[in-house]
Design a protein that fits this description.
By secondary structure, the chain is an alpha+beta fold. It has a single domain, classed as Nucleoside Triphosphate Pyrophosphohydrolase (Alpha-Beta Complex). 26% of the residues lie in helices and 40% in strands. It is built from 3 helices and 7 strands, in the order ββββαβββαα. Strands 1, 2, 3, 4, 5, 6 and 7 form a 7-stranded mixed sheet that branches. Strand 5 and strand 6 form a beta hairpin. It is globular. It starts with 6 loop residues before the first strand and ends with a helix.
Length: 149
Amino acid sequence: MSNPLYVINVEAAIYKIDKYLIIKRSEKEEHAPGVLSLVGGKVEERMAENNVLENSVKREVLEEVGIEISNSFHYIESNSFVSDKGYIVVNIGFLCKYESGEPRCMSEDEVSEVHWMGYDEILSNPKAPSWLKKSINKAESVRLRVEKI
C-alpha cells in the first residue's frame, strides 16, 4: 500500500468464561507502543475474499498470541483514529470466544505480554488506556447478551 485512503484494522475481545485476553503491545510497535490492548491488526492487501474481516481476526489472533478462536463472531463497534504516521484507521471490533491453545507472545515485535484479565480488573487498571476500557465495556455488554441466548 503506497498511500491508502484508510487502513482497515480488526481487533478481538477474546473471552474465556469471565476473563478477556489482554496483550501488552511491544515497545517496537509504531502505534501505541507498550500499552495494554486487545489482539488485532491490519486487514492485509490480498485478492478479494469472502469474510475478509473474520478471516483477518482469526489470522491476527493466531499470529500474535497463537490461539484458536471459535467461528462465532459478534460485532462490538467500529471507530476511527489517526495513526502515528498520519493514516486514518478504521477499526472494527469483534467479541470472540476462546477455542483452544495456550496464549503466548508469538512475535516480540508486536506483543510483549499476554494476560487473562477480568472485566473489573481491566477497568481498574491504571495502565489500561481509555479506549481499551471503552471497548471492554461494549464487549462485556455484548458478551452478557450472547451468553443469555
